[in-house]
Amino acid sequence: MNVLEVRGLNVTYAPDVRAVRGVGFDVAPGEVLGIVGESGSGKSAVALATLGLLPPGARVRGSVRLRGRELLGRPDAELSRVRGRDLAMVFQDPLSALTPVHTVGDQIAETIRVHAGATRAAARARAAELLELVGIPDAPRRARAYPHEFSGGMRQRVMIAMAIANDPVAIVADEPTTSLDVTIQAQVLDVLRTAKEATGAAIVLITHDLGVVAGFADRVMVMYAGRAVESGPVDEVYRRPRMPYTIGLLQSLPRIDGTARGARRIEGAPPDATEPAAGCPFAPRCPVSVPDCADAEPEPALTGPSGHLVACVNTVATADPARVFPAPDRLPVPARPPREERRVVLEVNELVRHHPLYRGTLIKRRVGTVHAVDGIGFDVREGESLGLVGESGCGKTSALMEILRLARPQGGRVSVFGKDTSDLSKGRRKALRRDIQVVFQDPFTSLDPRMRVADILAEPLVTHGVPPERTRERVEKLLELVGLDPAHACRYPHGLSGGQRQRVGIARALALEPRLLLLDEPVAALDVSVQAGVIDLLEELRARLGLAYLFVAHDLAVVRRIADRVAVMYHGRIVEIGSAPEVYGSPAHPYTRALLDAVPLPDPGRERHRRRVPLQGDPPDPASPPRGCRFRPRCPRYASFPDDASRSPCDAQDPVSRPLSGAVRRDQSVACHYPLLPGEGVR
Amino acid sequence: MAAFLLRRLAGHAVLAVLAASLAYLLAAAALDPRADFEDRAPRPPASAIDAELSRLNLNDRTPVLRRYRTWAGGVARGDFGRTWQGEPVNAEMWRRTWVSLRLLLPGAVLGCVLGVLLGAYAAVRHGRAADRAITFASYLLLAVPVFVLAALLQIAASEVNDLAGVRVFEWVGESSPGAGEGAFGALGGFGDRLRHLLLPTVTVALAQLALYVRYQRGTMLDVLNADFVRTARAKGLRWRSALLRHGLRTAMIPMTTYFAYTSGLLLLGAMFTEKIFGWHGLGEWLIDSITRGDVNVVAAVNCLAAGCVLLAGLVSDVVNGFLDPRVRVGAA
Question: Which positions, given as ranges, span the membrane (chain B) (predicted)?
Answer without folding.
Answer: 103-124, 136-157, 197-215, 258-277, 297-319
